[in-house]
Amino acid sequence: MERQSGGGLGAVQRLGAPLSQAKLRIDGIAKRYGPVVALEPVSLEVRTGELMTILGPSGSGKTTLLQVICGLVEPDGGRLFIDGHDRTAMPVHQRDIGLVFQNYALFPHLTVGENIGFPLKMRGRPAAEVRERVAAALAMVQLGHLAARFPRELSGGQQQRVALARCFVYQPAIILMDEPLGALDRQLREHMQIEIKKLHRETGATIVYVTHDQEEALALSDRICLMNHARIEQVGTPQEIYAHPRTTFTASFIGTSTLLRGVVEGDALVTPLGRFALPEGRLAGAAALVIRPEHLRLGAGENTIEGVVSETVYAGAETRLLFDLADGTTAVLRLPTGMAAPEIGTAVQAHWATDAAVLVPL
Amino acid sequence: MRRLGPALYALPGLAFLAVFFLYPVVQLLALSLRNEGTGEFTLQHFEHALGTEVYVRVLGITFTIALQTTLGALLLGYPLAHWLARLPDGRRGWFVMLVMIPFWTSYLVKTFAWMITLDQNGVMNRLLLGGGIIDAPLEVLHGRIGVMIGMVHAMLPLAVLTMLPVMIGTDRHLPRAAGTLGAPPGQVFWRVHFHLSLPGVAAAGLLVFITSLGFFITPALLGGPKDTMLAQLVISQVTEMMNWSFAGALAVMMLAAALVTTWVYDRLFGLSTVSGQASGAPRRGQDALRAVGIAILSGLAAVQVAIGAVMQRLVGRRVLGWLLPAHAAVVLLFLGAPTLVVIPMGFTDSNFLGFPPPGYSLRWFAVYFGSELWLGATVRSFVVAFGTACLAVVLGGFAALALARSESRWRGAMFALFLAPMIVPRIVVALGLFYLFAQMGLVATEAGLVLGHTVLALPFTFVTVAAVLKGYDWRLDQAAATLGATRAKVLLQITIPLLKGGLVAAFLFAFITSFDDLTVALFVSGGVTTTLPKQMWDDMILQLNPTLAAVSVVVFVLVTALLVTAERFRKPAG
């Protein structure tokens, strides 16, 4: 498996999707603020009707990328295409892009209905049409009875729905969402995730969704674009990214895993902890084996590591066992249901099947 | 263009200040350094000013009065501000209004009130004689005591309103934290409250001192020949002697004093505290100074704790607890009472301003409304104030909008420039404008008055709009843009409606500033284009009469109504 250089282009081609289907194409977009590089040249394609999340820790460049897409920030280089047309220099208000803000950015001096009607009025739609479409949008988010209220009279979740309706009502080419659920509590957030999925399915809209929450990204996305240090780290479906991380960053940012670092020699990885068989895929030089907790089992087997139990974490549906290896790394495994956890301080062995691990370069 | 966008909004304001503020002041400086006959560079005017005993004495008097006024206003004002700052937010507004009203009340009305209060047959002497406290009427008018009463009264609101935001801005939990850490109330006050309020005190001191330096209304009307201040000298040099160069030299000296004071202040505290922001970390390189200051504070605290313990044993905790509110009440009464005296005087049926009025009637209002001179002046003041308010809100509002989002390294300098007309003594601005307008043929025109008043009002509109913008959510503008609104539509449909309250308040503040101004009007209006304050001033110099009381009532009621409206709008909507 060769390491991908520029980001998503390769992924698209590998999956066999024709280029003409790209709703949004970013080609070498870069941005710096003085000495700070906010965005290395990145390239990415978002397909029509797709929900893509841009995932990354804070400072990874995901918000800059989003602001470049909607035109709030001018890139230093690169080009941006929407439906195949170059839109790099087009001002914000002509771009036909919808943006859902983290704090909703509802106009406090306009009613819910006026807020939703705003983009239609800006486009000079006739009053009757505005009324009709606002009503339809309100019905879609189940807020028909609140049209005359002001935003401050609504709960957080209701405000969020108004923000969504205001965006969907004018059917922009692309809808961007900037951590839209960040301000909601966990339960409401999960509820709204389902609503967003439903809206996406019903409207067929192309959505680019920015978040730092990996669970949210896994739950929502058709594809995830993972960013780190102003670069795209990996692009793929949630399953691909989880099962086949291509870097140690991906492996540790999405889910938890045990990382065994070493050097490839022949068909084995040589580490301070011993020689381990390599899974499919060849690399040379420094590399690491990534093993997910569910692939690590107690006891000796094909590839075995030894350690001392340092912590057990009970999470309702599962219990995780943390144990320290001789070289200082912490390994994580998922205990089978119903199995009692070994006491802290006990020495344990664990093993995995060679093909369950993933080899990544260091 | 897109990158310059926000900064462009500041250009009209900057251009305006360059032409009608910086240029005239610089021209004044040039004038003062030139021999009128030959046009050569000379220091003769400054030598003349500093070598003549009369002028040196006036300089001394000016600085003495300004310094004494500053001390008086700070000493009386600090406890009041401290008391106001600790009131619950809801109740504070009403009491702050009692300071705001005298702040915006015309200096002429305030001075007129003191003239009829302190007069030999005035309210104060009547009350004291009637109460048997004194045997012969006190003669405080036309002396230093009269000037000091008038000056401190005039400057007290400015001092309190400047200190207040810093005091309110301090974290309310800090005094409690100090208490739980074992500090007795005396220590809490000096080491926490007082120490944290110092930037506000310094800002208040600065503004009061500088404003006092350029004062002429109060010393001219309440003082005697021995209380002549620099600004009076400047006025007489221009209006009576036509000696421009010498007046320029005097004005430049005043400006220099103001700038030096400001510079020292900036070195010590940083200018940003003037606009009501508590300064952040203390400046570096002043560790020694800081250590001395803290030692003084702890000494004061120890003394107060000791006195407090003794006093508590003597009079009890209860009585001590009333000291602060009692002081606040007395100071608020001092601020408000003189103006209230004017109101019955306006309704007198007598030909004289005796107190109490022998009977009541509307005859002096009839005189006012029947006089072409007074009505003409009133209408002119309204027209000029309206024009000023429009111009100042547009220029100041756009400037605030530009600077709120600017990341330019010139931001600090531009900020200072927009506040500068507040720091430079008005008389200097007025004199410079008079000279410029004489060249442009704008003297005695309404346009000249509007331009001059806009210079004075610009800092107020700028600060008011900037304050509202501080809480403005710029993402709303971005949201509107992504929803398809052009830049003009964003401004008209989102930004301006959301800032409406601040803009209306700024408009009204500018209106009052113009409506009240005497300094610029003194030079620029004249003859048939007199304004209301100018007309009042002329009457007050010549002869006090009940018409003045009636006019004062009208002006007071009008300005108070505008002020209450402005304050209501300034509260952020929603």
From TrEMBL, chain A:
It comes from the Bacteria. The keyword ATP-binding applies. Signal peptide: none annotated. Keywords: ATP-binding, Nucleotide-binding, Transport. Residues 24-254 form the ABC transporter domain. One of its GO terms (molecular function) is ATP binding. PANTHER family: SPERMIDINE/PUTRESCINE IMPORT ATP-BINDING PROTEIN POTA, SPERMIDINE_PUTRESCINE IMPORT ATP-BINDING PROTEIN POTA. This is ABC transporter ATP-binding protein. It comes from Paeniroseomonas aquatica.
TrEMBL record, chain B:
The chain crosses the membrane at residues 54-81, 93-117, 201-223, 244-265, 288-310, 322-347, 382-403, 415-438, 450-469, 490-512, 547-566. Belongs to the binding-protein-dependent transport system permease family. CysTW subfamily. It is found in: Cell membrane. It comes from Paeniroseomonas aquatica. PROSITE patterns: ABC_TM1. The keyword Ribosomal protein does not apply. Residues 59-265, 378-566 form the ABC transmembrane type-1 domain. Its main location: membrane. This is ABC transporter permease subunit. Signal peptide: none annotated. It is a multi-pass membrane protein. Keywords: Cell membrane, Membrane, Transmembrane, Transmembrane helix, Transport.
